[in-house]
Inverse folding.
């Protein structure tokens, strides 16, 4: 790593592992070694999906080679092994987000499905005509549309916490929105389009003062710092696996046990039942009540390996590396004339959205791609955010702990090339 | 310079960059008798095509909207090309343009300036940028109520 232009130590708190060697970490991610159009791949689209370490791929491979069977329903050896691996993964995730009990961890397909589950069960039961649900102005579509659908069905109203030009929520306005008709607050922890880290603890506390439960969309947060659902005291927390070094098609919903218990089931089918007759079905206990059908077994097991891997890298190392990357990239990109960073909150994760004067994000993306640089371009499934900033789209570079300062230098050169083409 | 970079130059031809920076016929058309909106949900590009059609001939045509260099230049060059053309010629040009940007070859002798879009075929994800405005034109010709999309 370069030592010139070193930014002040991002995390000098005791316990930060000084041994952190990004080149060694990169060895764990074989995909990063390839060339794109003859140039080294610079993967800066981690907010869309992270790359997978070898250990996750090995775990998945091993499962199919040695343990594959259906779970919770076989007395044979393979089924027992598969069940044990799957349930172990649940415990790993429970510890990872510091949930009190493993039955509070519901395996789902994605963070999107986690939110839909709550909207379709808790929401349908609790939200009635005239009630209100609060979301924020910086939500991903996945934390808007399920609530909009629910409100439409019930004749309820969706209220929106506004934000300022930096991309920070206006908490005073939020306070004004809370009222006795509010049935739920659903807010994103880290904005995927802006990188803002929301003051989620305060948001939760203010809602709880009025006995309103809070769902946190943690799809972007879980990969960047240690989430402690008990310390946050959130009622629901949605996580996706594939942004967290895990496979696609698996995520988790955390919910407080008493809340989950009181909710009707989500989907009906096998696994979620205790007994079935044509007259009456009784439902299984948590977490199985919410896991109808054969789940994504290998996905869950892969996610378990992923959270182990992330824990092993260590939150302090991840925070330190990502913070340095964000600071360096912000500094370098800010120096480019005609470039404007969208999302300049004081508290930010390593997500950098930007627009270049006179150049559409799509063109930025195509030219950077030709340099081997992968960034996301478009509205990032957050069209209201784009409308708020009156832009059609942004280009977004999002950094993971396996990215390097040298890669940011390549990004800067790529952006200079964009500016050159359109000058 | 590698092959890939030369592909980039094929995509961002001078003519395309010029039409992107200074789009022609970029305005609303009060005397239009056909109009349609197009939308690309993938990137949020929006375009409105205005058309004054008389006796099966495009008397005037214009567009408004926001989009990338490829979609803006495609709209600008389309309007420039189609003025004075009859519906049969419009259809032939649409087909020719579609074949050109999807790399299907086909008849190109009538394409004129539209040939600058030949490089798009090297960039499959950008084909929709180039064709959005043409799909929107077709919606205007058919007076479809639904906005045209690339999907």
């Amino acid at each position: 790593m370069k030592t010139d232009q070193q930014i002040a130590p991002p995390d000098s708190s005791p316990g930060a592992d000084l041994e952190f060697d990004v080149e060694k970490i990169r060895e764990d991610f074989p995909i990063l070694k390839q060339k794109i159009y003859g140039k080294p791949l610079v993967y800066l689209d981690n907010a869309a999906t992270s790359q997978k370490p070898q250990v996750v791929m090995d775990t998945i491979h091993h499962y199919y080679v040695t343990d594959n069977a259906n779970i919770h329903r076989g007395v044979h050896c393979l089924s027992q092994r598969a069940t044990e691996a799957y349930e172990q993964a649940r415990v790993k995730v429970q510890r990872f987000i510091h949930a009190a009990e493993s039955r509070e961890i519901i395996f789902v397909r994605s963070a999107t499905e986690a939110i839909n589950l709550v909207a379709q069960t808790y929401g349908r039961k609790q939200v009635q005509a005239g009630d209100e649900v609060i979301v924020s102005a910086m939500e991903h579509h996945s934390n808007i549309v399920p609530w909009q659908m629910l409100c439409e069905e019930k004749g309820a109203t969706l209220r929106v916490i506004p934000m300022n030009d930096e991309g920070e929520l206006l908490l005073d306005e939020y306070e004004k929105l809370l009222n006795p008709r509010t049935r739920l607050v659903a807010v994103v922890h880290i904005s995927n389009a802006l990188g803002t880290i929301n003051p989620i603890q305060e948001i939760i506390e203010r809602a709880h003062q009025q006995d309103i439960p809070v769902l946190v969309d943690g799809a972007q947060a879980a990969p960047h710092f240690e989430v402690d659902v008990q310390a946050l005291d959130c009622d629901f927390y949605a996580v996706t696996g594939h942004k967290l070094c895990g496979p696609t098609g698996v995520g988790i919903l955390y919910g407080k046990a008493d809340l989950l218990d009181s909710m009707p089931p989500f989907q009906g089918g096998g696994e979620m039942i205790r007994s079935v007759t044509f007259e009456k079905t009784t439902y299984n206990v948590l977490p199985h009540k919410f896991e109808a059908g054969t789940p994504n077994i290998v996905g869950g097991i892969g996610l378990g390996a992923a959270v182990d891997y992330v824990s092993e890298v260590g939150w302090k190392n991840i925070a330190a590396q990502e913070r340095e990357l964000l600071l360096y990239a912000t500094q370098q990109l800010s120096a480019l004339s005609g470039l404007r960073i969208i999302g300049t909150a004081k508290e930010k994760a390593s997500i950098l959205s930007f627009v270049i004067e006179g150049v559409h994000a799509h063109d930025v993306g195509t030219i950077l791609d030709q340099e081997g640089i992968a960034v996301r371009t478009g509205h990032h499934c957050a069209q209201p955010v784009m409308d708020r900033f009156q832009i059609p789209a942004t280009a977004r570079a999002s950094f993971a702990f396996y990215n390097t300062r040298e890669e940011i230098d390549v990004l800067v050169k790529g952006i200079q090339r964009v500016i050159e083409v359109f000058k | 310079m590698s092959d890939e970079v030369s592909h980039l130059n094929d995509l961002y031809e001078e003519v395309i960059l010029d039409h992107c920076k200074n789009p022609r016929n970029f305005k609303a058309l009060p005397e239009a008798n056909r109009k349609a909106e197009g939308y690309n949900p993938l990137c949020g590009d929006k375009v409105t095509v205005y058309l004054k059609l008389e006796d099966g001939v495009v008397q005037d045509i214009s567009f408004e909207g926001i989009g990338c260099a490829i979609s803006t230049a495609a709209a600008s060059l389309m309007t420039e090309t189609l003025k004075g053309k009859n519906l049969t010629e419009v259809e032939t040009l649409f087909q020719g343009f579609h074949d050109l940007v999807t790399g299907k070859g086909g008849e190109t002798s009538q394409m004129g300036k539209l040939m600058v879009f030949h490089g798009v075929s090297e960039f499959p994800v950008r084909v929709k940028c180039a064709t959005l405005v043409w799909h929107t034109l077709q919606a205007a010709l058919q007076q479809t109520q639904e906005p045209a999309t690339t999907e």
